[in-house]
Target: Immunoglobulin superfamily DCC subclass member 3
Amino acid sequence: DFGRSSELAFVVEPSDDIAVQEQPLILYCQVEGIQPITITWRKNGVMIVDSENAFMLANGSLYVSRFQRVRGDGSSDEGEYDCMAQNHYGLVVSRKAKIQAATMSDFHIHPQNAVVEEGGVARFQCQIHGLPEPVILWHKNSMPVNTDNERYTLLPKGVLQITGLRAEDSGIFHCVATNIANVKFSREARLTVSGSHSTVYKDPMILVGPENLTLTVHQTAVLECIATGNPRPIVSWSRLDGRPIGVEGIQVLGTGNLMISDLTVQHSGIYVCAANKPGTRVRRTAQGSLVVQAPAEFVQHPQSISRPVGTTAIFTCVAQGEPPPQITWLRNGQILETSDHIKLKNNNSTLSIYGINQADEAIYQCLAENSAGSTQASARLTVLWADGLPSPPQSVRAETVSATTIQVSWEKPLQNTKEIIGYVLHIRKAADPVEMEYQEAVSKSTFQQLVTDLEPSTSYSFYIKAYTSRGASKASEVTVVSTLGEVPAMPSLFIKVINSTTVQATWEPSIKLGQHEGFKLYYRKVHLSQYTGPVLLASNVTAYNITHLDASVVYEVKLLAYNQHGDGNSTVRFVSLRETVERTVLNPPCDCMKDEQNNKTSTTGIIIGIHIGVTCIIFCILFLMFGYRGRLLMCKNVQEQLSTPQIPRSQRSTTGLVLNGATRRDRDDRDLNGKQLDMNELERLFPASPSQEQQEKGIMSAHSLSAPHDETQISTLPLDEFSIIEEQPDPLPENPHGSSPAAPAPDHGPANEG
Model:
């Protein structure tokens, strides 16, 4: 490695400048390194020849005697200048210096007359373009404005703000623009302050908000914001992204203008100016963007290196800036062209040179450039070469052995072979970049190498180097050869019996099939020698049904994959359908649809049966509960009847008939679907005395209470309460109460009941 003092490098580079018309201009360039060093200059990429107007000084700087923006022949001294330095080891180029002529245009915005009431805000503006940026000053009544007055605010872009206007502020205003090129005056404008301060309420309003700015780091940004209203609004600033503005380098000019000094990239953003009515949330806002650019600068410089012949040299160059810089590489001042052994990666940040030789020895430069500026850094590559190294190996040949193997052979170098300690075979796919190369070491007594584990149908490049303890020889000639094509691998085959005459063959396709591929399917009875087939199947087919088979024999099924290189190995399976036939005889096939329907029917029947059973249980419980309650009521009524005085048998018979009639009516109601016995008819046929009627009412009342319950409740009455009445020709004897004789019992009388 070489120290920086011996490296060819710039100590001073030319910088951007603004030149004055007809004035001299000097561009500086100072270089260090091993002498002799030659310095030359270029403008817009063209070499500058010394002339009366422009020539190089003894220290390497360029002197322009009379700078002219436009010469008589149409040429101009404006442009991009760079300095080139060269010595025995290489050439370097400086950064580009942009030279512009100092100018000043006419005013394109002049101040305008204004009439503003007392206490209000007045604003005048002048605008003019120039290089360098003109300095604008304001005059009132032909005298410079007093900048010590806090109510007067002068902004860098040619704006004059006057707040809290008073009568003495009235006058005639104009601005004066000055730079190294010229001095110019704007038109005049009159300010008239009218009336007295108004106390009428006015909503806050922003007269002028911030404009969009694009500046460079370390410059100063002024964001204007002027607001009116009554009471006077309070102006505040914030960032749209919510980040704090900070306090360092921040200053408020006048009543609300924001000035940011010594800009950095972090100051970029959208700034919001808000005019707030005091004590309320009433506010008006305006916003503007600030873009801060940063010239390109290096985070990591390329370093000079020394490498033996045949090795790899890597240079790294990392730059930052806003916007992100573009990186370009130069080799001895010329744009570096990439090739098979020269590669750029990582957005040109990394330069790799593979298999270096003496022709690669040079100075390599990294240029980083963006819209804010450019910079450069250089590094030197020294290729180490020792005398007496072997010459390249001879007669390198490569022969294809198989789809994955190639044999490489060579002959020993013609010169300096005594110190050889071995050979290195360099292997790479012909389509791969150089960095994908790999090596295999071979002993010095071996002149051939079998390279295995290669890919089928692929081209490979090979070259050989002979190594000694002092370094490697130059590379031999490169030979390129391709491996053979490979047939597909064996597919995985599975056999499934469908029925007594059909089997299904399924398989998984091989991942190594070529572009034109497919499958061949064969099958035969095992006792026969001839196959049926081949059945040709496309590469996307993965199943095939073999039909019309004989169930009594065993079959052999064979499947293979093929491509343009031939047939692959086959996969064989044996299958018998005899067991399927036997199972079919012993276990006849079921009608699955019918069984499914039967299952559904059986399930439905079970569910319905369960519902019916539950319903019956509920009815039985209700039957027992209400039957028990009715029995208690009936027994109570019977006991009351038995405790009353005895009545004649004929009367008891009548009563018994009534009961039997009622009982029979209930039964008839159930047996004959609602046939009823009219109670009036019974009274007409069987008149009774009042006492009997009361007794009958009591009994009937008891019966009516028990009537809604089960008929078994009637069986609780003693048998002697029932009477059988036979039809007789003679009328019954009259009762003491004179009741009418009893009528014959109807045909369905209680005789049947007894």
Observations:
- Residues 634-754 have pLDDT under 50 and may be disordered.
- The two ends are 142 Å apart (CA to CA).
- The first strand starts at residue 9 and ends at 12.
- Helices lie at 578-586, 592-643, 649-671, 679-685, 690-706, 750-753.
